[in-house]
Fold:
Amino acid sequence: MSFFPSSLEILIEKFASLPGIGQKSAQRLAFHILSLPDEEAQAFADAISTAKKTVHCCAVCQNLTDSEVCAICQSPRRDERVVCVVSDPKTVIAIERTHEYNGHYHVLHGVISPLNHVGPDDIKIKELVNRVADGHIEEVIMATNPDTEGETTAKYISRLLKPFGVKITRLAYGMPVGLSLEFADDATLMRALEGRQEIE
Amino acid sequence: MSFFPSSLEILIEKFASLPGIGQKSAQRLAFHILSLPDEEAQAFADAISTAKKTVHCCAVCQNLTDSEVCAICQSPRRDERVVCVVSDPKTVIAIERTHEYNGHYHVLHGVISPLNHVGPDDIKIKELVNRVADGHIEEVIMATNPDTEGETTAKYISRLLKPFGVKITRLAYGMPVGLSLEFADDATLMRALEGRQEIE
Structure:
């Protein structure tokens, strides 16, 4: 039985469908929206539509961007011979924050995970292979998370790329195994970048 | 420095402005929105605008509604001589869920709280006084929260309504059903003792 006006029920339901938001929190958030001035509530709605409409994957590195090719791929100051392979856009941010890395990226948008029915074709591996096949790339740094799925993905990709003769490295274990890259502190990430090791 | 496309940054910022949502959660929610199919993301945006546009306060009881007068105030089966005064719409839901109450409501949208700069004029007390002054109401049940601010508000309102000669009651204090006496706080136990009832 619904006690709230239907449009409010719908809004609560939408919030409750977000990850990590339960029924009580969804109610609180919906009430908060109602308490906002009209223009602020509308700005929130617009932010959703606009982000969804304008943000897509960079044609080169698959990172999120609102232009055809992202700012990093376009920058003449970045070294296009080095590509750092990450599982998601948040890791790009984490690495950029160190100000230590000057190469390009490749965002996989996931890792190989048989348990979650994610196979090699479900993430952007093909696009990476095509980039490497183009011949400009000299080093590929595997920066997937240091957990089982991240390792498996790194190994799988490095085996695919071996025939192209590029140097393949991975982030050094400067960080505790099991920690998500997204939450690593800058100093740890920096050391891990500096000490990257070649994958045999 | 912003690493994400600006429309994504704006969306993250919007989520981060919600109560109880930090920067990391806001990122996670914004990414979730991007991962939704176009029509679902748009439905979310629409839910916000629609709720904000259609939901307002009932002209009579100030509860949230999408019509001029809410369903409870319109219902011929509800006893309009009894009005239960609550601080917010969520309390209406809680009381409705008991299926025990058949009267009307009055939603104050807050409680008197000098510390938070909320005075009697900032909540819907005037509207309640007007309803009582109309003369149809015989009993007003104060159902504000049993804390200092709720008590203060209840006392303030009951003093205002006294001159109209209506019966003014408040929810009984006592032990919550199912709570072990061992874990009851002193104030609750004291009230439960004071209000002890004869066993027939």
Q: What stands out?
A: Chain A touches chain B through 50 residues (CB under 8 Å).
